[in-house]
Design brief:
0% strand, AF1862-like_dom_sf, mainly alpha, CRISPR-assoc_prot_Cmr5, Peroxidase, domain 1, CRISPR type III-B/RAMP module-associated protein Cmr5, antiviral defense, cytoplasm
Length: 142
Amino acid sequence: MNTTAKPAPVTLEQQRALFAWDNATRAKLHLANGFGDFVNTAKAAPALIMNNGLMQTLAYYQAKGLDDRGQPKKGQEHNLALSDTLQRWIGPRVLGKGSATQAPGFKAMMEDLLRAQPDQYRRATDEALLILRWIRQFAAAL
């Protein structure tokens, strides 16, 4: 008889929670004084996505986070951090691009979303909203 207990399978909701926790704590560490802006941006993100769409929201964060030369704007790093987090969650799960540690990149993500079938785009939007629920809760608690 095998007495070695196998761990219970990790549910998708547990995976979301772990990813959100890791990314909220990483944002707190890397953004330091700008973490409050990250929290506020994460809280507002679901409404932006529902009112404007996923692609428009990602484009907004990109435009807010980068200057004319494509360099991060001082004081706006939280926009890029949230966009990167969403890309690292949506990319591998919905589009098959990137990983939990490496975003597919803004242009690649946008091109894939532009070419996505309606059900795939809807799933990407749903996943963004679901991961944001966790990120908002954890970021606010830190």
